[in-house]
Specification:
- The protein is α+β, with helices and mostly antiparallel strands.
- The chain has one domain.
- It is built from one helix and four strands, in the order E-E-E-E-H.
- The chain has a four-stranded antiparallel beta sheet.
Length: 91
């Protein structure tokens, strides 16, 4: 666990979590997708002093979230693939 400041914020300035927590997380974005039926989230996460990684979550109103954990280079590859697919889709 990480020590917190007197106002219960994480000592890591980039972390958005408060209180006692084992995982540090910065919420980068969340967006509603595909006819407003999906919620997609992108976060930066660090657990127990391990290297930072990217967390991609997806859920519907009716299902529990699915989480994909990616190393930074894997996240870049996914981002490039999404950009390529989006470019092709609008041609």
């Amino acid at each position: 666990m990480t020590a917190t400041t007197s106002n219960d914020e994480c000592v890591l300035k980039w972390c958005n979590e408060a209180g006692d927590h084992d995982e540090h997380r910065q919420y980068v974005t969340s967006l509603v997708a595909w006819r407003s039926t999906w919620l997609i989230g992108v976060n930066i996460v660090q657990s127990d002093g391990e290297p930072l990684h990217v967390e991609l979550t997806a859920t519907t109103r009716w299902s529990p979230p699915a989480t994909v954990t990616l190393k930074p280079d894997e996240a870049e590859a996914v981002a490039q693939a999404l950009l390529e697919a989006a470019t092709r889709a609008v041609r």
